[in-house]
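Record type: monomer structure entry
Structure origin: computed from sequence
Chain ID: A
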Amino acid sequence: MDQHQLGIVIGVTAAIVVVAIMSFVLTRRHRSQKLRERFGPEYDRVVKKEGEVRRAEGVLEIRAKRREKFVIQPLSEGTRADFAERWRIVQSAFVDDPKASVSQADQLVNELMETRGYPMADFDQRAADISVDHPVVVENYRAAHDIAVRQDRGQAGTEDLRKAMVHYRSLFEELLGDRYPQRKEARA
């Protein structure tokens, strides 16, 4: 092989390597963009928690694959009305007994999640499962749960309990609807 042919082989090989690298980078960017769009603020939370984008994206992809196995059920009008009425009762009892209302709100949200078809594993797994369909309000769910846990230890005041109810309400309202994924913030 003469110098000219060797130059051509090296040039073609270098071009193939450059195209492969560019293809890899563009594929990673596209993957990241799709995950960011799907998970919204949950994407950033997981990246911060995992400390590395690639690992965080792997976690989010595992969540999405796990979620694909669930059969999320729409609610009948009767079931929806029943849950809405039960929520109204829990919320109206807040003034007289905030602690009990927060506890009941947590139970009602969990019952609604189960009725919809989400598995009822430990809290962290439930939050991860919910994050696939409800990436914005899942943070409200975490905040409400945190307040409920602090309440159980006697470390939450009435204002904290009010915030928990607002957070639970945002997830409850989203779960009560049939539109997936809705991306709305809780009203404070």
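Annotation 1: The chain has two domains: 3-68, 77-176.
Annotation 2: The first helix runs from residue 3 to 39.
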